[in-house]
Design brief:
Low-confidence stretches: none
Number of helices: 20
CATH architecture of the largest domain: 3-Layer(aba) Sandwich
CATH superfamily of the largest domain: Glycogen Phosphorylase B
Strand content: 15-25%
Shape: elongated
Largest sheet: 9 strands, mixed
Helix content: 40-55%
Length: 475
């Protein structure tokens, strides 16, 4: 089986979030299971020069963008056994940032069309083209409209994965004639609620639509989660499936991680966690107390990550409970200032570092006892899995991938502490249950070992994807 994985970002070349992690890890896991998976992505100007130096120029072609044709250079690179194709066009991709430009619609329309145009040139005909999020959502649309009846392309199936339904690629209807170039008879494919909606087009045209966790696949049928797409998703529910993401366990490994103070595994977890906790307290300017529960937060500081819940009870928690909290993140000024104010009020209990420092994030995963992630919605979430990988017990709300990966330890079998309703005091109750468990030392040691033994490697997820691919080819 041959799969072309289409993504606007992929490690090691470019990543701004979870999509880049997935596109860097899943193709490797598929190849290890004898699936011929290759990746195609844009050649951004901001990709590191040492990675560019290892790329090979194949050729160039021109790609139709509505009424005009645009240059498309094709470069090839290899990483960890996976072949990557990088689409070059400096007009579209020579930018300081990869998203957030006035012409993003045109940039990723070009990319989505280029994916199909390069296939005969690189002599790779995949069985499955697997597209991800709105930036490549037009590839299934273009395949259906322009390529499906071409003898060379016939028989290819398309899969579309929704990583975050909030970002759909919604633009004005003028895009159809000026940028997308669909025939008038096909405009209804991408039209939704009076706009052009890239994601809606992919949901219509792809053979299969997946999300990054089973629970999220159910949640996006509900208007509260769907950002307006619940109607079309309910109509196409028969093609919808959720597969939980994994994490790169080689990259996130407490036994080899060079960023943390002491490497450890299940055999020396108690000592390793203690050394890393002391180092984290020192780095964050907190008192170096060995016997106080330390809660870590690594997050974008925005409301849908549950920051309004934390804001509602933090003063009560710090006033009544012997805990320390280490926060790393950036986002809305109100939350940044709130944590700064709380750090000033409780300097021995809370410290914040504004920004995103990858090495410090790892130190928080390794040095914390508990990890707080009370999201309003979370398609999959990776932080809770990374926390477990470092033996840190997550406190999460039961939503999306958090619900699918974390079960409450109240039954003696779980791997964290959960709460269901989006309520600040329900979250506070879960935090206090985590703190109580910390003081039960024998039980706590068992929980830490259980966390370290959780397996969220890509292997299990890759097997689910392969099963899904085989079903798509059979249908």
């Amino acid at each position: 089986m041959k799969v072309l994985f289409v993504s606007s970002e992929a490690l090691p070349f470019m990543a701004s979030g979870g999509l880049g992690d997935v596109a860097g890890s899943l193709p490797q896991a598929l190849r290890k299971r004898l699936i011929g998976c290759r990746v195609v992505m844009p050649l951004y100007d901001t990709i590191k020069q040492e990675l560019k130096d290892k790329m090979t120029f194949i050729t160039n072609i021109s790609v139709p963008v509505a009424w005009r044709r645009q240059y498309c250079g094709i470069f090839q690179a290899k990483h960890e056994g996976v072949i990557y194709y990088l689409i070059d066009n400096q007009y579209y991709f020579k930018r300081d940032t990869i998203y957030g430009h006035y012409d993003d619609a045109e940039r990723f329309t070009f990319f989505s069309r280029a994916v199909l145009e390069i296939l005969p040139v690189i002599d790779f005909k995949p069985d499955i083209i697997h597209c991800n999020d709105w930036q490549s959502a037009l590839t299934p649309v273009f395949y259906s409209a322009f390529y499906s009846k071409d003898p060379w392309y016939q028989g290819i199936k398309t899969v579309f994965t929704i990583h975050n339904i909030q970002y759909q690629g919604t633009y004005g209807m003028e895009l159809i004639s000026d940028v997308i170039g669909l025939d008038p008879a096909d405009t209804s494919i991408v039209e939704y609620d009076g706009d052009v909606n890239f994601m809606k087009g992919a949901i219509e045209c792809a053979n299969k639509v997946t999300t990054v966790s089973p629970s999220y696949a159910g949640e996006i049928l509900d208007p509260w989660y769907s950002h307006g797409l619940d109607t079309i998703l309910r109509e196409r529910q028969w093609k919808l499936q959720g597969i939980l993401n994994g994490i790169d366990v080689k990259n996130y490994d407490p036994e080899t991680d060079g960023a943390i103070a002491m490497n450890y595994n299940v055999k020396n977890a108690k000592e390793g966690k203690a050394v890393n906790k002391k180092a984290l307290q020192a780095e964050m300017g907190l008192p170096e107390k060995a016997n106080v529960p330390l809660i870590g937060i690594v997050s974008r500081l925005v409301s849908h990550k549950g920051l309004d819940l934390i804001k509602g009870i933090l003063d009560e928690l710090l006033h009544t409970t012997d805990v320390q909290i280490a926060v790393l993140g950036s986002g809305d000024w109100q939350y940044e200032n709130f944590f700064k104010d709380m750090a000033a009020k409780y300097p021995e209990k809370l410290a914040i570092r504004v920004g995103f420092v990858p090495a410090l994030a790892r130190k928080i995963y390794a040095g914390s006892d508990l990890f707080l992630m009370p999201s309003k919605s979370e398609p999959c979430g990776l932080s809770q899995m990374v926390a477990l990988r470092y033996g840190t017990l997550p406190i999460v709300r039961e939503t999306g991938g958090l619900r699918d990966s974390i079960t409450d330890s109240g039954d003696g079998q779980g791997n964290g502490f959960t709460f269901k309703t989006y309520n600040a005091h329900d979250m506070l109750g879960a935090i206090r249950r985590g703190v109580d468990a910390y003081w039960n030392k024998e039980y706590w040691d068992t929980l830490v070992i259980r966390a370290l033994e959780c397996d969220f490697s890509w292997g299990k997820s890759a097997n689910e994807y392969i099963k899904m691919y085989k079903q798509v080819l059979k249908d």
